[in-house]
Design goal:
The protein is built from 13 helices and twelve strands. With 346 residues, the chain is α/β, with parallel strands linked by helices. The strands form two sheets. Strands 1, 2, 3, 4, 5, 6, 7, 8, 9 and 10 form a ten-stranded mixed β-sheet that branches. A two-stranded parallel ribbon has the order 11-12. The radius of gyration is 21 Å and the shape is globular.
Length: 346
């Protein structure tokens, strides 16, 4: 059966939350939806609950479960969803989050009106690790992009212009498959690398002001380092390596009108990681040395390329990456929390 949309749901040990998530997905007012559940070989009853929906829900026939050969993590899970999806458009829903009933209808209306390749909507972040849940709103103005490089120029115009998430995004699978876009094999920031690669290929895009998704933040999750008592050094290094996969794709983008801001975005993220490590160093084990911290700022561009394609910010980062590590770290310590405004990244 052909579908207009696939809602892809990676599932791993979420039995506490999967019912609410499935309820929100199955309540969509849009008719032509495949609900593709990726079983990442968890050890709880999550998939049993999904099978129950298959058998009892009015839309059960549209639920398809695909099982991984073994647990492979969120990056591989998303790639498998891309491979298996039968819809023309793909929407990722995390298995502990919620979407409103008109999410797909609103996004498909924008697709049809603007012939869009990608639609992104506003969302709320619900923080559940405080005494009382707190909501943060990430709100877009209504924008339409229709020229090459226009969406990417907006995305890299300033840090946070687009959030790193790939959920609550309706995307044309033809774009993903045409350019062989894949998620990196990691459990954190795999969506950031994918999304900021994707926007460089997209011409027609829409941002919607409608709040269509609730991102549920809980204690002790991989995406919530800042609320943990201890953080493994290996996790920090994996985050840096994830950003490096994006960094070393620079040659394709050299000369694009947004290139210097793209480079700043990546190096800003490296800088933010260093800043957060310095603030939380006593929580990270084993110790991260000053030499390792300086290496986070390494740019694949030569000094000549930096001068030609960069701007004052990338010049500064290049300088920090070649100064003695003690001086680099001391400079960053003096600037932490004062010169660059950022959200906590670890």
């Amino acid at each position: 059966m052909a579908y207009e949309v696939t809602i892809g749901i990676p599932v791993y040990n979420v039995e506490k939350y999967i019912r609410l998530t499935m309820d929100s997905a199955l309540a969509q007012t849009f008719d032509s939806i495949e609900f593709l559940v990726l079983d990442d070989c968890g050890t709880d009853s999550s998939i049993d609950i999904v099978r129950e929906y298959q058998q009892t829900h009015a839309r059960g026939k549209d639920i398809r479960i695909v099982r991984q050969p073994q647990n492979g993590g969120i990056g591989r899970a998303r790639n498998r969803i891309v491979e298996e999806a039968q819809g023309r458009y793909l929407y990722f829903l995390d298995a502990d989050d919620l979407m409103i009933s008109t999410t797909i209808s609103l996004m498909m209306s924008a697709v049809l009106k603007y012939n869009a390749e990608i639609v992104m909507a506003s969302y709320q972040q619900v923080e559940l690790y405080n005494d009382k849940p707190q909501n943060k709103l990430f709100h877009f103005s209504h924008l339409f992009f229709s020229k090459p490089d226009e969406l990417a120029t907006y995305a890299f115009s300033h840090y946070g212009a687009l959030q790193a998430n790939i959920w609550n995004v309706l995307l044309d699978l033809n774009i993903v498959r045409k350019y062989h876009l894949q998620f990196v094999n990691t459990n954190f920031w795999e969506d950031m690398v994918f999304k900021y690669d994707l926007v460089t290929y997209v011409t027609r895009a829409v941002l919607l002001p409608d709040v269509t998704y609730s991102y549920m933040c809980r204690e002790n999750t991989l995406s919530n380092f800042q609320k943990r008592d201890t953080i493994g050094k290996d996790e920090i290094l994996r985050n840096v390596e994830t950003m490096n996969t994006l960094k070393y794709r620079y040659e394709r983008l050299l000369g694009r009108p947004y290139f210097s801001k793209w480079l700043n975005f990546i190096l800003d993220t490296d800088y933010y990681i260093i800043s957060e490590v310095l603030k939380k160093r006593d929580k990270i084990y084993p110790w991260i040395s000053d030499l390792e911290l300086r290496s986070f700022l390494h740019s694949p561009l030569s000094i000549f390329q930096t001068l030609r394609y960069g701007n004052y910010r990338s010049y500064l980062y290049k300088l920090l990456s070649i100064l003695p590590e003690g001086i680099t770290v001391r400079i960053i310590k003096n600037f932490v929390g004062r010169k660059l405004k950022y959200n906590s990244v670890i």
